[in-house]
Amino acid sequence: SSLKIYCPGVEYAVCWTAKCTKNGDGKTASCGCLSVRDSIKNEGRFEPGWSSSVLIGSHSYRAVLKKLINNETDDAETEFCDLVANKTLYDDYGLTPDRISVFGTYNEYINTTSNDRVGCDNDVSYAQCMGAPCYNSVYNGIWNLTCICPYVNKTSGSTWDSGDDVCWSANATGDCAVVAGSSRDTYTLDYLESTVSAMKSANMTVRNHKCPCVGS
């Protein structure tokens, strides 16, 4: 999707430099993320589409998507930003996250403007955190939020260079995952339904010594 939603002044989470611990359900991982307030310097950007499909179980979010499809962009943006600010985006999941994860343009701790990505050609567990629910629970070090993100196992892809042997540390058979550098994946209805179900009952798991975020 080329659509983007901006919510001025809203507090959000940045996860694309994250390392994650799998939660043991085969679907979700707990990822160490940073708390950020939207500003001119650090503009938060939400991208509706497959990368944020974790939200499809929310009837309020589906109403936003319908407005976007009907080119009612301003109304859609207002409704979405209100859901984020009021912490009601995940009401249908029985969750009340402190923030949601979006893409941030600036990071005072890590140079995210360098496009320092690595390609992986082994079986890797990639977390997709766009729109994921996040909580004021420290992952480790400066990573002061933990977000629950769905993940998939893929035989190739890219991720931000978040430490030594980042690809092998997130091997599909291991306990860790990394956030995908990009995602063009599409998903079946069965996958979406099972992922939404897993999100509703996910138990946050953090093994920050085994799956540490860089710079911790």
Which stretches are poorly predicted, pLDDT < 50 over at least 5 residues? none
Share of helix, binned = 10-25%
Give helix and strand order, one letter per element, not per position.
EEEEEHHEEEEEEHEH
- What proportion of the residues form beta strands (DSSP E)? 25-35%
**Class of secondary structure makeup:** alpha+beta
Largest sheet: 10 strands, mixed
Tally of discrete structural domains: 1
Q: Which radius of gyration do the C-alpha atoms yield?
A: 16 Å
Mean pLDDT: 83
Large-scale geometry: globular
Tally of contiguous helical segments: 4
How many strands appear in the DSSP assignment?
12
Query: How far is it from the N-terminal to the C-terminal residue, by CA?
Result: 33 Å
Provide a descriptive summary of the structure in words.
- With 216 residues, the chain is of the alpha+beta class.
- It has one domain (5-108, 115-201).
- It has helices at 59-69, 73-85, 166-169, 189-201, and strands spanning 5-6, 11-14, 19-22, 28-37, 44-46, 99-104, 117-120, 124-127, 133-135, 145-154, 157-160, 176-179.
- Strands 1, 2, 3, 4, 5, 6, 8, 9, 10 and 12 form a 10-stranded mixed sheet that branches.
- α1 packs antiparallel against α2.
- The longest helix is centred in the middle third of the chain and has 13 residues, at 73-85.
